[in-house]
Write a structure and sequence with these properties.
Elements: E1 2-7, E2 12-14, E3 20-22, E4 26-27, E5 32-37, E6 46-52, E7 56-64, H1 68-82, E8 88-95, E9 108-110, E10 114-120, E11 127-129, E12 132-141, E13 147-149, H2 153-159, E14 183-186, E15 188-193, E16 207-214, E17 220-224, E18 229-233, E19 243-246, E20 249-252, E21 255-256, E22 271-278, E23 282-288, E24 292-293
Antiparallel strand pairs: 1-2, 1-8, 3-7, 4-7, 5-6, 7-12, 8-9, 8-10, 10-12, 10-13, 11-12, 13-24, 14-23, 15-22, 16-19, 16-23, 17-18, 17-22, 19-20, 20-21
């Protein structure tokens, strides 16, 4: 087994690069934390819903030094690698089988195209047994508790869906070619969210680009009829305008544009999302976002 670690600056390495052997990659489920209230004179509690808490990942490891003196150097190097206040991304790697077809020990492979944004939590130490050191690295998710795809729908639009190139089985992807299209022209189309988590632009990455608008004189509206989320421009849109919804930021040809809209945003449900455009005879709409998983 192995773990690939990628820093926010793009620097990437594996624990095996530093003579650290990974014994497991133990991912917890996402804790569900109920929100309740008291009402005087009422039995029990009032249910206000629930929230997702932080997910934890435990990585048991051991190291093998050259000699007793080298052990301390190896220990300090590990601490230097993993001790950071910034979040990091981690990917799980496992051997598909103990041996390959040639009888050699098989190589570690990525487990799917998912990663977790995490931070080391608490202190950890290595229990020394001569030249060996045994310990556990504890991680907790940062921002959101979900796993996310390392690639986005823009990669599918550009290169198609190729398994092994950042995509894998178990990621909710379909064989249906229509589900691989994230740029559409016209007034109605479908977008497939292969993740198991809905996408909200205030919480997750979601970039929507609208351009090549034809026949818009008074307004332009994009509606997700699956969940009724609606984005509306309150004036006519010209064919040379490029409107971008990037999270909570809305621009038109690079200029802030929120004031010219209904100040609402598009959300995506898990699975298929049906869209329709009104106020124009045609427009091109592109979606760029990763998928998120429980």
């Amino acid at each position: 087994m192995d773990v690939e670690i990628t820093k926010l600056n793009g620097e990437s390495f594996r624990l095996s690069d530093y003579d650290v052997t990974v014994r497991d990659f133990d991912v917890s489920s996402i804790p569900v934390e109920g929100v309740y209230g008291d009402v005087e004179g009422r039995s029990g509690l009032v249910n206000y819903g629930a929230e997702f808490g932080q997910r934890t990942i435990t990585i048991p490891i051991y190291t093998k030094a050259y000699d007793m003196g080298d052990y301390a150097l190896l220990r300090d190097e590990l601490f230097g690698l993993m001790t950071t206040s910034e979040p990091i991304y981690v990917r799980e790697m496992r051997r598909q089988s103990e041996f390959n077809t040639c009888g050699d020990v098989s190589d570690d492979k990525y487990v799917g195209g998912k990663r977790y944004k995490v931070r080391v939590t608490g202190a950890y130490n290595l229990e020394q047994m001569r030249i060996y050191g045994f310990g556990e690295i504890m991680l907790e998710t940062v921002d959101l508790p979900f796993a996310e795809s390392i690639k986005t729908t823009a990669d599918i639009d550009k290169n198609g869906l190729r398994y092994g190139d950042g995509w894998s089985y178990g990621m909710g992807l379909l064989y249906d070619e229509e589900s691989h299209k994230y740029t559409h022209t016209g007034t109605s189309f479908k977008i497939y969210n292969a993740g198991s988590v809905p996408i909200h632009p205030f919480e997750q990455d979601l970039k929507i680009t609208i351009d090549d608008v034809v026949g818009s004189s008074e307004y332009l509206q994009l509606e997700n009829t699956t969940n009724r989320s609606t984005f509306r421009v309150t004036e006519g849109v010209k064919s040379n305008q490029t409107i971008i919804l990037d999270g909570a930021n809305i621009t038109s040809n690079g200029t802030q544009y929120l004031r010219k809209t209904n100040k609402q945003f598009i959300e995506l449900d898990a699975g298929w999302n049906e869209f329709k455009i009104t106020g124009a005879s045609s427009a091109r709409v592109s979606f760029d976002h990763p998928f998120y998983y429980l």
